[in-house]
Amino acid sequence: MSAQNQRMATRCVHAGKFPDPHGSPFTPLYDATTFEFDNTADLLAVIDGKRPGSLYTRYGLNPTIRSLEAKLAALDQAEDALVFSSGMAAISALFLAHGRDGIVGLGDAYGGTLELLSHQLPTLGFKTRLLLLQEMELLASALDEGARLVFFETPTNPRLDIIDIRKVADLAHARGALVAVDNTFATQVNQQPLALGADVVVYSATKYLGGHSDITAGVLAGARRLLDPVRAWRKNLGQVPAPTTAHLLARSLRTLAVRMQRHNANAQAIAEALSRHPRIRKVRYPGLPEFEYYELAATQMSGFGGMVTFEIDGSGEDARTVVDNLKVFSLAPSLGGVESLVTQPVTTSHRDLSPAERSRRGITDSMVRLSVGLEDPSDLIEDLEQALA
Ligand SMILES: *Cc1c(COP(=O)(O)O)cnc(C)c1O
Questions:
Q1: How far is CA 351 from the centre of its chain?
Q2: In the record, which positions carry N6-(pyridoxal phosphate)lysine (predicted)?
């Protein structure tokens, strides 16, 4: 049975492994920086791309890295995938390779992505434009002005807004532009952007794909003709992860499907418990039928993820007290690990924005963001209840 026909959990375990002469059930760690050849003809065949083979680790031509990329490609049903030393390495290489004619960032985005688009890339002459979700009707004119890449996250951080991937892809493709979706929050298990029309999928593998808060890595998946120019940037910017990191990421991916099922179930239980709590004004979770994006989420996601955002009925100070009172949830600015984490966006991810800009983006002082981990959900709900009391 080819990996393309297998279901997600099976692909997580088996896809991408190379036959091993010693019978290892997974591709072992090749922590070598270079690889030997029998003769010059053999060496040239690999350098010229006439046969696949290992050559030099920074080029990505290392069995541990290629095996991981084959697994990642299978998880997104993509032709190929590239791994990077971080999510930002993947995003910056994508922008350098495909953003020269202009990039439109849609909706809220990760802080590093926003900095690249609003400050750093313009200093290199890149034309960039940032549109909020409520400015979606400006996307067509931004593309008519020449932008050739649309980039967005869905669900977004921290509001968990959902952007219609199919709709944006149709609009962009009609104008000859590419669409890249940062699928970090949903993961391959809950959302398949390529099947919905996106051209490239982007991940911070530091989050759910790594899943244990112990590796920093990034991923792009898509058609080879789109990834090849990015591969050239990755090679000379030196953005390939260490083989040890690639090996750990491959190990993590073997449990991705089961981990995400539990993240989804725990987050759903917490979102439902919080939505009944008298001290909470609003719970933002794509899996709650009363959430404004529920129907769209239900059409393009197969699970609703482990992130839950809520607004307490109180001030920013009150939200801070709740965050500080939590014991099982740790206060830390990341997400996607086995351990539950909490942040108040106004003091962390969105601290650098002015109050006016935060309010334009719908990020309030009383907002709290949870990354729901794999603990017993009853312990997590009890922790939230004691912190809110
Ligand atoms: C964390 C994150 C990134 C950046 O990833 P790093 O691995 O920290 O470089 C990009 N996008 C999203 C949605 C993220 O959560």
A1: 21
A2: 207
